Amino acid sequence: MATEDKSLHFIEQIIEENLENGFPQDKLRFRFPPEPNGYLHIGHAKSICLQFGLGLKYNAPVNLRFDDTNPAKEEQEYVDAIKEDLQWLGFQWAEERYASDYFQHLYDWAVKMIKDGKAYIDSQSSEDMAAQKGTPTQPGVDGPYRNRSVEENLSLFEGMKNGDYPEGSHVLRAKIDMTSTNMLMRDPLIYRVLHRHHHRTGDNWKIYPMYDFAHGESDYIEQVSHSICTLEFVMHRELYNWFLDQIYDDNKVRPHQYEFARLNLNYTVMSKRKLLQLVQDKIVNGWDDPRMPTISGLRRRGYTPNAIRKFCETIGVAKRENIIDYSLLEFCLRDDLNKVAPRVMAVLDPVKVVITNYPEGKEELLDAENNQEDESAGFRKVPFSREIYIEREDFLEVAPPKYFRLSLGNEVRLKNGYIIKGESVTKDADGNITEIQVSYDEDSRSGSGSEASQRKVAGTLHWVSIAHAIEAEVRLYDRLFIDEAPDSHKEKNFLDFMNESSLTVSTAFLEPSLATAQVGDQFQFQRLGYFAVDKDSTPEKIVINKTVGLKDAWEEKGKKETNSINNSLKDINKFFKVGSREERIVIRKAIGETLSGISNYSLLQNSFRKNINNNKSSLLFANLILKYSSLKISDYDTEDLSKLITMSLRSESSFVRLRAILNVYDLDFDPNFVNSFKDEILKLEANPSKSTTEREKEYMEKLLNKL
Question: tRNA synthetases class I (E and Q) anti-codon binding domain: from which residue to which, for each copy (predicted)?
Answer without folding.
Answer: 460-534
